[in-house]
Amino acid sequence: MKNRAYFIPYPAVDKALSGDRECSGYFQLLNGYWNFEYFNSIYDVTGKFCEPGYDASGLKKIPVPGAWQNYGYDKHQYTNMKYPFPYDPPYVPADNPCGAYVRQFEINGSSNNMRKYLNFEGVDSCFYLWINGQFIGYSQVSHATSEFDITDFVHEGMNTIAVLVLKWCDGSYFEDQDKFRMSGIFRDVYILYRPEEHIRDFFIKTILKKDYKQAEILVELEFLKNPIAVEYSLFDADGRKVIEKGRAKEKLISFTINNPRLWNAENPNLYTLVLSTDNEAISTRLGVREIKIRDRVVYLNGARVKFKGVNRHDSSPVTGPAVTYEDMLLDLMIMKQHNINAIRTSHYPNSPVFLEFCDKYGFYVIDEADIETHGTTTIYVETKDGSEYPLLAHNPLYEDTILDRVQRCVVRDKNRPCVLIWSLGNESGYGRNFENALKWLKNYDADRLTHYESALYPPNGYACDYSNLDLYSRMYASCEDIVNYFEGGNWDKPFIQCEFVHAMGNGPGDIEEYYELIEKYDGFCGGFVWEWCDHAIFMGKNERGREKFYYGGDFGEFPNDGNFCIDGLVYPDRRPYTGLLEYKNVIRPVRIIKANLKEGKVTIKNMLDFYNLKDYLYINYHVTKNGQLVYEGTVEDSDVLNVKPHGEKVIYLTLEQINEGNCYVKFNYIQKNDMEFTKKGHVLGFDQIEVSIEKKYDTESKIDSIIKRDMLNRIGIEAELADFSNNTGGFDSGTQEEEKRISTINTRESDRSLIVAGQNFKYTYNKNTGAFDQMVYNNEVILAKPMNYNIWRAPTDNDKVMCRKWKECGYDRTISRAYSTNVTQLGSSIRIVSEISVSAVHIQRILNISAQWLVGDTGTVAFNIQVEKNMEMPFLPRFGLRLFLPGEINNVEYFGYGPYESYADKHRASYLGEFRAKVKELHEDYIRPQENGSHWSCHYIKLLSEEGVGLAATNNETFCFNASHYTQEELEAKKHNFELEESGYTVLCLDYTQSGIGSNSCGPELSKKYRFDAQRFEFNMTFKPIVKQI
């Protein structure tokens, strides 16, 4: 059948108003278990399955919708770009796997005078159809609806449907999307019953006039045969009639709505339009809205709008592309809860019901045609000059193919108000075929915007026509690229990042920088994070009860792209990653842009496009001093919060007890009323503002009395801290008071080691490595294995490019060597000075270190580490000390950025405060293990066992720490999280700093300001073992 808009017929207006297609007597769903037979090759297929009277009861059953790879047939394959078969268009392998589906269905006698239309909403990759043994037709384009008129082939009573689905077809060259490649009938199958004469299609257009106070609605009708009488009614969201019954004039309906309630993502106001004929009613949700570009800026209903979006695939860890309505709604609910307002249907049209949900719940949609030919870039060519990218885009043989795929997307979804932008596809190059499709599209629907990022990749020497493209689209443009676009002076289209801040593994780490540019430039209309969810296959649990998620290569398939599909903001089962929490707070609905908290005033900015803040939220604020809550207040007065969209306002607060100590005010933005998916009281985001900060954290109040006495009040250690805080680079020789004290500390030295002992401790220092091997305090082992100087981290997915260079330089296998160790006594303390190098096998020196350690007679240890980096070497992943504490020391208290993992460029989901957690709770369980769970800008940390044994550490400056039961070697070695084995230790990394996270797994290089590339730096810290006094 010819393409048409998606809609469902109903027998009467009251049923149509429900919008529930399964309540329609004209809708017969054929989902369920079908008989199924799998064939490794089409040449193995016997024709019997489609013959009249064939008994399929002996076949196995398979669910529809579903993909046969999830039920033991064929095998899973994940590939990003490479075609899974030889590149030989339009041919695919002769031994083409396929599946035969058979089921019976009943036709009721009451429908004898009606036409019957069989619909398949999604079949991968193509299929042949038989009804009662008669061949009906063939269709392809996996993510498009295929409709067949089966009226003349069915009869009253039981009928048989047979479908043969092929794994590949010539269309597979245009469906090379980054996903698990699965096959079968993966979306709904149903029959629609229609009167002999009926509306075949309709196209709703809205025209806003008089400053958006009036809307003219046009409905263009198309009939199966001749025009028939059509009545129409319009209802508002409460079911009240807005337009009484009117009659169409030939093929056009026209009416006006005064003071219309406009549709947008923040207020998704919908009307219901009902079209009725003698024996049928059709309903559709109607959203009144207008998308325009003025002066190179995108406006919706006259307001400048920003897309805070994600790229979303249909993906379930259990059923693959066969996602249920519940799956769809869960995705949308989590998105709403995290301030996301836009979705790109990467890289194919989603289910038509998904778009209806987007209408209802308020999401802007880039609706993308089912086109991707990225594999052309991986075919072998001697000289890669870009000419391979548009091989199919510019080949006239495929002009109709590309046009058909664009049309099937646009025509089906043309009445969905959520669709603001049409995308012609993804990563397929550019050429005459796309230009022709764009011309058709702009002629067919001039009211929406057009987008196609691959327009940047035309054939060499081809004079491109970009006149029908509305947006300048980029993927993973760096911040510098964006600034150059706007500051260059010749930009002519709004800028959009259809993919950015790649969310693979621990990341993304650069969202804030991009969002600042989105706000800075009116012409930057937003971006879409790649991507929403991890694509993985749930494979049950292992013997330890750990869930197993498989990715590319785990099924032995070739080619595969490994864990490149594990790149979502949520896990496969939709648990949020910290990256989603980061994104949520970056795109919060209000921001503090100026603050003078000592005067009690802040300037807030409304980041929303349509809501006044007074109608949307209130503010709750907390004042903390040294991590302790000292005051809280609320701002909820409507006059105070009367801030229009994009507006700014100074508000005044009541603040107390902020004159000393480390004081911060955290502003929580709280949802005012219940909304779809979110309830009153939902936290929309926060800001934290520093009031005052002392150079050194208030150790006296935050490290317990043992540490207070030993670290501050005993004169020897007090002198040590003073020396470090003054950056003297070492320790003085002691004071007169120290000399009067009777020292209880002593040393014993051998060629390799130095033992420092006091009344209640014994520490072993390794003179070859320049660090401690063991620490025993009050007969309790505190340091269970030798500590080491550490510059390595288990590579994150975003480190993968840089990781190659790091490994070339031996960063992952460093060796520390102390050339000299000098020991002197300073009053009641022992000073140890070592000159050290850090290098690797066959690699020159990476670092030169001068380390000074001071051990007090109470067991307190202070260090000053001065480092000089070989500038021939690339920037460092990190620098610090790695300590191995007994595993039972597993309770953590710290003051720093928490409660989530935090890094220099990834800490907007966290805030400065005092936090307590178990070590295992600090672990972010990425499916491919990697560096995780670190905490940035910390002032102190304390780790204790249940018995009160442990370690506390502090610093004049802030530091980073990571506490884990896994070593970085284990995290790097294992491919999956369920394979991880705990070390038996609590591995504590005390870091001077770490490099940032970035999004270089597919995005730009890590920004220079987040690279740890200092040539010289100095790391100071004081730590003390703890044994609870009984």
TrEMBL record:
| Gene Ontology MF: a single term | carbohydrate binding
Q: Which reaction does it catalyse?
A: Hydrolysis of terminal non-reducing beta-D-galactose residues in beta-D-galactosides
Q: Domain Beta galactosidase small chain/ spans what residues?
A: 755-1024
Q: Which keywords accompany this UniProt record? A: Glycosidase, Hydrolase
Gene Ontology CC: one annotated term: beta-galactosidase complex
Q: Name one Pfam family in it.
A: LacZ_4
Please list the GO biological process terms of this entry: lactose catabolic process
Q: What is its EC number?
A: 3.2.1.23
Q: What class of enzyme is it?
A: hydrolase
- Which top-rank group of organisms is this from? Bacteria
Which InterPro entries does UniProt cross-reference here? B-gal_small/dom_5, Bact_Beta-galactosidase, Beta-gal/glucu_dom_sf, Gal_mutarotase_sf_dom, Galactose-bd-like_sf, GH, GH-type_carb-bd, Glyco_hydro_2
Task: Please give the SMART domains that the UniProt record associates with this protein.
Answer: Bgal_small_N (SM01038)
Where are its TM segments located? none
Family statement drawn from the similarity comment of this UniProt entry: Belongs to the glycosyl hydrolase 2 family.
Checking PANTHER family in the record gives: BETA-GALACTOSIDASE
Which protein are we looking at?
Beta-galactosidase
Name the source organism: Ruminiclostridium sufflavum DSM 19573
Its lineage opens with: Bacteria, Bacillati, Bacillota, Clostridia, Eubacteriales
